[in-house]
Design goal:
globular, alpha/beta
């Protein structure tokens, strides 16, 4: 796969009742939360499919990893489906980035699948920023981030990060070296 220049990674969870968007279950029920997640994830996939860049490969990292075949059926063509690694989010992200770079990617961007404002233009800007910046970070309102892009493997971005915390993005940015990053 020597022609792989860019990789877009989606982190997905199979939209199973009781497993997706669990914080919404008290309000929507298990089935309702899964339906909401399915809709938002499919909008993210649609946006990812619409991104047209030469040398771009799309990967869907599925949780649970045992659902890879079901995940491939769900995401359809245009994505290579992979199981997420075991461990915390940092370990799973690290492994996904490592795989993309090992396959020849020079610029890698990861997004989650619950980003209602995701657009083709936003993804385009993230990849373009990686031509002049070492990293791209899209901070979220809750202190985390919705997008991370790298132009080389940076293990520190995934190690000892306080995941799902108000300082997730700030800690990641500090590890990457704020002066070398583009804040999306």
């Amino acid at each position: 796969m020597s022609d792989l220049r860019e990789a877009l990674l989606l982190f997905l969870r199979l939209p199973e009742a009781g497993q997706a968007k669990t914080r919404l279950i008290p309000r929507l029920g298990a089935e309702g939360a899964a339906r909401v997640y399915r809709h938002v994830a499919e909008e993210t996939m649609k946006c990812a499919r619409a991104l047209a860049r030469p040398g771009l490969s799309r990967f869907a990292f599925i949780e649970p990893a045992t659902g890879r075949d079901e995940g491939q059926e769900w995401v359809g063509s245009g994505f290579e489906c992979c199981g997420q690694a075991s461990g915390d989010l940092g370990r799973r992200l690290h492994t996904a980035f490592e795989q993309a770079f090992a396959r020849g990617a020079r610029r890698v961007v990861v997004v989650g699948t619950d980003i209602p404002d995701l657009s083709v233009e936003l993804l385009e800007r993230a990849f373009e920023a990686l031509y002049v910046h070492d990293a791209v970070l899209g901070p979220a309102l809750d202190g985390g981030y919705y997008l991370l892009g790298l132009n080389t493997m940076r293990p520190a971005a995934f190690r000892d990060i306080p995941w799902s915390a108000p300082d997730t993005a700030a800690t990641t940015l500090a590890r990457l070296g704020e002066e070398r990053c583009w804040i999306h």
